[in-house]
């Protein structure tokens, strides 16, 4: 499973998303879009959004911290 979280260091929902993944022992790549404009543009193309977090779970895009949707995509209860 390939999981990428597009985030910024100061975003509280980004922190919640990453903490949730870590608590469930889910490996992910964290990309700080505040310091990487190329990745920020990639995130916007993927999601149609400029806000963070954007989580890409095997091509399924989750905008914001949506615990239920993330859990469903990861097969967590």
Short description:
The protein has 77 residues and is of the alpha+beta class.
Describe the structure.
The chain has helices at residues 12-23, 37-47, 67-74, and strands at residues 3-7, 29-32, 54-57, 60-63. It is an alpha+beta fold and 77 residues long. It has a single domain, classed as Glutaredoxin. Strand 1, helix 1 and strand 2 form a beta-alpha-beta unit. It is globular, with a radius of gyration of 11 Å. The relative contact order is 0.24.
Major sheet: order of its strands?
2-1-3-4
What's the tally of helices? 3
CATH level 3 topology: Glutaredoxin
Number of domains: 1
Rg for CA atoms: 11 Å
Number of strands: 4
Largest sheet: 4 strands, mixed
Mean pLDDT: 96
How much helix is in the residues?
40-55%
CATH superfamily: Glutaredoxin
Low-confidence blocks of residues: none
Structural class: alpha+beta
First and last CA, distance? 17 Å
Topology (SSEs and partners):
Elements (H helix, E strand, L loop, with lengths): L2 E5 L4 H12 L5 E4 L4 H11 L6 E4 L2 E4 L3 H8 L3
Parallel strand pairs: 1-2
Antiparallel strand pairs: 1-3, 3-4
